[in-house]
TrEMBL record:
Record-given protein name: Tetratricopeptide repeat protein
Superkingdom, natural source: Bacteria
Record organism: Leeuwenhoekiella parthenopeia
Occurrences of domain SH3b (ranges): 220-266
TPR repeat segments: 40-73, 74-107
Regions crossing the membrane: 149-171, 178-198
Keyword Transmembrane helix tagged: yes
The keyword Transmembrane is annotated on this UniProt entry: yes
InterPro entries in the cross-refs: SH3-like_bac-type (IPR003646), SH3-like_dom_sf (IPR036028), TPR-like_helical_dom_sf (IPR011990), TPR_rpt (IPR019734)
Keywords (A to Z) from UniProt: Membrane, TPR repeat, Transmembrane, Transmembrane helix
Pfam family, one: TPR_16
Amino acid sequence: MIKNIEFFRPKSSGFRCNATQLIFAFVVLFVAFVSHAQTPEQLFETGNSQYAQNNYEEAIKNYEKVLDAGYESAAVYYNLANANYKLNRIAPSIYNYEKALQLKPNDQEIKNNLEFAQNMTVDAITPLPQNIFKKWYRAVLGLFSVDGWAVLTVALLGLFTLSFLFYYFIASTSLKRTLFTVSFLALGLGLLSLTLAFQSQSEKRNRIFAVIFSPEAEIKNAPNLAGESSFVLHEGTKVRVLEQDVNWAMIQLADGKEGWIPVSDIKLL
């Protein structure tokens, strides 16, 4: 006859774990966890040390942990891009240089390294020509990020307020003229900066870009596998996303070509 399995049961006179002991044990475990967990700053510095030792794989892991913790900066994306570039990973390096450039649009070092990474791409795309006024507009709009234009607007309007107050209270006629001119220019430039801030925000919202991560992506003329192939793109190529559903995205190249690509083949910037 098979007997019922009997589990060991401690006697009631044995050790009892009360609430105080449980709280104490929890506190000890929590302190141990916190003491071993690295802050994003420490992870970043660890990544930098590993990068200096040519340990690029581990450096990438630590930089990605910083981003996973919800912290981002141009420096993190830039170093992550550099580590991927050292490993000849085209798409991740270009993607992270682009992310760094979004946060620091005027950083020449990021632009230079991005250009080096783009030289590794297969696709040669000639952008459509732009008129001189559109080039100037793009150049001015790209001087600052949305936050940069917002900060500049606040600073200029603050200068206008101070200049106007001094103008109102100071008795000197010559100084009044100077302060009136300064306040007028600050107000005009502040309003222009505010306009550019809204334009930059609109551009950011309406102009969505992505980087192709697939080694080779077949661009279709319709959002389905049965669609005809229009052209082929390769990893690292930057594209503009015009529309997107769950599985497909309609993209546009700098030369004006358009087509559909599986969402799994791209990573949005």
